[in-house]
Amino acid sequence: MLSYRHAFHAGNFADVLKHAVLTNVLEYITRKDKGYTYIDSHSGAGMYQLTEEYAQKTGEYKQGIAKLINNNDVPEALKEYIALIKSFNQEQTLELYPGSPAVAKEFSRRQDSAHLFELHSTDINYLTEFCERWSKSHVKQSDGYQGILSLLPPPSRRGVVLIDPPYELKEDYTKAVKTIISAYKKFATGTYILWYPVVKRELVDKMKTQFMSSDIRNVLQVEFCMHEDTDAYGMTGTGLFVVNPPWQLIKQLEEILPYLKTKLGDNQSRYDVEQIIEE
Asked: What is the set of active-site residues?
């Protein structure tokens, strides 16, 4: 339903929300010295050149990270994410945008490990090259859904799992949730982040119903929609389900979301944060 190559979409409004949340989650888990395991089911290329053809063809980053990178009024909950993006770029320029593996790499310490899955024949090569000097990173060209389940529970009993499939197939909506339900049975204390696009509202509603019908506890749902729901083709919004979110994440989102609406959205834009399942 969406283009598999994330290079088309790197740095767009959906990436901003996803990576802002991921940054805050990883900042929280690394407050403790004990190591953790990061698992990424659909890792992509690792790093994206915004000056290259894919990104320039759509220009989605211009309506996303480009509108935030040099602002002086960034809320506290977004500052670490913005600082991370700036660290990859020259002052006042925006040429590189980190994918989720690059975000995770910035937080990785000697005691931490990362497992990155990617199936695309081109992106796996980029990802492998990106991770060459990242000790304790493990890159595999295999199914990320199965890969997650094979790694749980991690030896440290501390972990962050990110699932953000391309959703080219409608089955990804239900398959992603089923994977988290199965993973939770093996590792109930991990933090799981599931990204989704708002393309057809009924598909998102079905995901929510799956979660609420499961035995999973402590689930947060967050959405930022640029436009009203529509049956026309295209992504009108983006969202995340977060299982076992850090305790302060809701408060952070209450800073982040109004700011994104002001800077990226318009009068049609809306956002929502809901604890759909209590602890």
From this structure: 164
